[in-house]
Amino acid sequence: MLRLFRVCVYTLLFFISFSEAVISCLNEDGQPVDWFIIYKLPIYKMEVKGSGVDYMYLDPSVVDFQMSKHTVNSSKGALGRTLTQLYSRYTSNGSVYMVYNDAPPELKYPSNYGHTKGVLMFDHSQGFWLTHSVPHFPPFPERNYSYPSTGKYYGQTLLCITYNYAQFPQISWQLAYLNPRMYNCSVPMAFRPDFAVMAQICDGKTPAIKNRRSLQKLKSVRGQTFFSFAKSHNYVDDIYTGWVAQALGTDLLVESWLHQAHRLPSNCSLPRHVMNIDRVRLPGPQMFRSYEDHSKWCVSYAFKDQWACLGDLNRDSGQAGRAGGLICSQSSVIYKAFRQAMAGYKHC
Q: Where does the record locate the signal sequence feature (predicted)?
C-alpha cells in the first residue's frame, strides 16, 4: 500500500513539474538559458565539403563558439529542444505562439511581406523569441521538428532570447513594423487584451503603424539588454548604413549574403561607415566566403564599442525597400565571438 502511495505521489509530482515547466530558450542539455546563438556551417567551406548540418553553439556560459555534438536536424540540440516546446504545446490555450518566414515551408512566398524569419512562444510568465535566417523553417507545428534540406547548403544564424511576459507587448509592436509572413499562430482570448497587434497579425490583418521604423530596448529574463531595430517597407534604405551604424555611433563590419547581383558595396559616405565582410572564420578552424553564408550579422569595427547585431536583411538594393530588422547588444561574449569570426572585409 505504501509503495502504491509513493508511486502515485511521484506520478503527481511529475505531471505538476511538467505542467509548470517554464517556456524558455533551452541549451544543449535542455536546461533554460538566457539566450543562445547557433551558427550553422555551410556545406562547402572553401571548397571543402561538409555535412551541411553541423553547427557552432554559443550562450552566456561559453567563452567562444564551440562545435556542437549534435546536428541542426536533430531534436536533441538546443534548437530542437527549444522548438519541441512549440510542438508539444501548440494546442494549449495557455500560451501564445507565432511562426513566420518570408519563405515559409510548403507555401508560396510573395515578396510584399518583410524579409524576416522567426518563432515566438510565451505564457503569462515568460517565453522566447527566436530570430533566424533559414528559409522554409521551421515546419508547421503539426509536422514536428525537422530541418529543411534547402537549409543545408549555406551558412545560417539563429538567435534565441528568453524574455519575461512584460517584454512581449513591445515585441508585438516590432512585429507590426517587420510585417512578417505569419503561417501559423495562436493568440488565445486570455492574451488578446495585452496583444491586440499580435492578434491582428495572427488574424491576417495589417496593423497600422505611426512611423517608418521602430527601435525598442528589451531586457532578457536575466537582465541582458538588447535593442530591436525594425524598419517597415516605407523606410527605403540599407538598414546597416542608413540607420543602425548611425544610431549606434560606430563603424560596422557586416556579414550578409553577397550572392545577389544587386549587392551593395562598402559605404563610407556617412559619418559612420559600413564595410562588407568577405570571409568568415570560426573555431576549428572553419573558414568560408561570404557568398557561402546566408546569415546576416554585424559587429562594430572598433573593439571599444563592442556592438554585435543579428538580423534579417542583406546588404542588397532590392531589400532596401523590404521590412526587416536586427537585434543588437553589447554583450562582450557575443561581440568577441563574432568579431573574431571576421576574417576579411572590403574597404570603402
A: 1-21
